[in-house]
Amino acid sequence: MSIHHHLDDASLMRYATGDLDPAFAVVVASHLAMCEDCRHAVHLAEAVGGDCLEHAPAAALSNGSFERLSRMIDADGDTDAVPAARHRLAANAGGDVPLPLQNLIGQSLDDLPWRRVVPGVQRHRIEMADTNGSLFLLKIGSGRKIPEHGHGGTEMTLILRGSYHDEMGRFAKGDIADLDEHVEHQPLVDSDEPCICLVATEEPTRFKGVVSRLMQPLVGI
Amino acid sequence: PGPKTDQALHEVLISDVAVHRDKSAFETLFVRFGPRIKGMMLGSGASEDLAEDLMQEVMLTVWRKAALYAPERGSVSTWIFTIARNARIDRIRRQPVQPYIDVETVSIACDAPSAEAEMITGQHGEMVRDAIDQLPLEQKTVIEMAFIQFMPQSEIAQKLGLPIGTVKSRTRLAYKKLKENLEELR
Ligand SMILES: [Zn+2]
Ligand SMILES: [Zn+2]
């Protein structure tokens, strides 16, 4: 898979420190599951974390701290760690659905209860706890255009099937559009099959113009 | 003569824990990392009790999962950092850290050791510190707030009296510079 659009470095760093909203963490993790380059980039950020841990201020531990832990370990018995080989299966199963998304929607993009929002556009909303944003899948028909829209907050879009292009280039499977609030764009689906993408938004995206307001239900609450 | 660097020592210790279930090796790691994990949790705003509790949980995970540590994927401290990060997320959110675990699963199953990992493991762990020290102070500050205190970007912006966009761009610049510095040091 050749991926051309990657995570913003600031997003990588936020992922590495655990600072991403849960909806965005799912999109970032899904891209990471598809993109070895970004996985290596995250490892580098985590190495910064490792070094910071070594240089963090040392706090006094409570009395008998190690003894307490030691008792927990003894109570543990012999719980052996999971062998890595067992992971291989899980990582490769699911085809179009990256592993972090499989836990939320299963292994198929086709069996989802898609709901039509406007002609040519279907949506499947993914419920999540603790998010200030929203997470959903969009399925946009071939040749369809999404109206030009600015973003009320950051927006991340990960392509799972098909492709579109907009002012920023062409986005195909595995590509992520990691956009901040100042961006305006108008994606046009240019694949023969519908384009399916995973989207996290911070706030409802604002569409411009009267007609475009009809598109509000697309991403709205 | 024992291992030369901290990093090499940590690797020996973790391997003793993994292979021999060696409690005294584990205690050495505990003494080394426990107080710093707790320090990070306190810095991130956790109470004394919560910080102690999270530290215990992190070290228990280190004990349990020692066999999953792979030197070619990064240093021991990096591995423990990710465990601490995950433990903290798990505690403050109802949404579990499954995305992080999934990415690790894919990484273990699919990734060849990277040039980055090679360059920051083995004898070269201190290079990361050198790379951080070479950052301009304003970038270093943002990085250390984010990584040592798990401080959210929004809070860093507030603390420093900066727009969030500035914090973001300093983070980006810092990351770019770190990568360059590490490549130069190699
Ligand atoms: Zn990528
Ligand atoms: Zn958009």
From TrEMBL, chain A:
Domain ChrR-like cupin: 108-201
Residue stretches spanning the membrane: none
CDD domains attached to this UniProt entry: cupin_ChrR
Pfam families: Cupin_7
Gene3D superfamilies in alphabetical order: Anti-sigma factor, zinc-finger domain, Jelly Rolls
Coiled-coil positions: none
Cited InterPro entries: Anti-sigma_ChrR, Anti_sigma_zinc_sf, ChrR-like_cupin_dom, RmlC-like_jellyroll, RmlC_Cupin_sf
This protein's name: ChrR family anti-sigma-E factor
Organism: Hoeflea prorocentri
